[in-house]
Amino acid sequence: MKNIEIHSLAACCNSWGIGVNGSLPWRLRKEMAWFTKASTGSPPRGKKNAVVMGRKNWDSIPKSFKPMINRYNIVMSRTLLLNTPEADAVVRSFEDLIQLLSCEQWQNTIHESPYCGKVYLTRVMADFKCDTCFPKLDETFKLLPTDQFDNVPQGVHEENGIKWKVEVYQKHKPS
Ligand SMILES: NC(=O)c1ccc[n+]([C@@H]2O[C@H](COP(=O)([O-])OP(=O)(O)OC[C@H]3O[C@@H](n4cnc5c(N)ncnc54)[C@H](OP(=O)(O)O)[C@@H]3O)[C@@H](O)[C@H]2O)c1
After folding, report:
1. Which of 16, 58, 108, 165 is deepest in the core (most CB within 10 A)?
2. Which CATH number do you get for residue 16?
């Protein structure tokens, strides 16, 4: 089976919170634009990136934004119908996801991102009440210099009085 590299893209606040009551704790238009740009990428003609998300995340996307355009929308769920409208695929487990992405039809149409196995983490530099958290990255994740990535927003940005910056981590693979 061909190696499949999956990249994480998230925004978390000071306490690693990412969500509250089924939606985002903040409204940061430019940060959302970064998510769209990063998840869409610039694949060659005929290919698209696949965005894999949990069912609650899928539910939280307003109907008018579904499916997220120019990307394959893949939802992980044990409850959603397999032929859910707007979703390109629903998978029941991580193993199903890998199997799906490995099959020839998807291999031919999914763009492999130049970003390999990285975590693109927006640090929202503020405190928010959250009920969902991103797993804390342990010391096996190394922070990379952001300036080596042309497409990543550089430095600290500010919207609605809230500062945010993008960090890129790579898991250290034992040799
Ligand atoms: N700040 C950010 O970057 C960011 C990004 C995304 C989401 N969010 C926020 O995070 C919250 C949602 O996150 P969440 O962690 O609560 O939920 P989630 O991961 O979006 O969805 C959880 C659901 O996904 C399905 N699922 C998860 N693992 C699975 C597996 N291994 N196999 C099959 N199905 C699986 C299950 O669906 P079923 O119950 O249908 O089986 C599970 O109930 C919302 O508040 C959202 O706005 C924030």
Report:
1. 58
2. 3.40.430.10
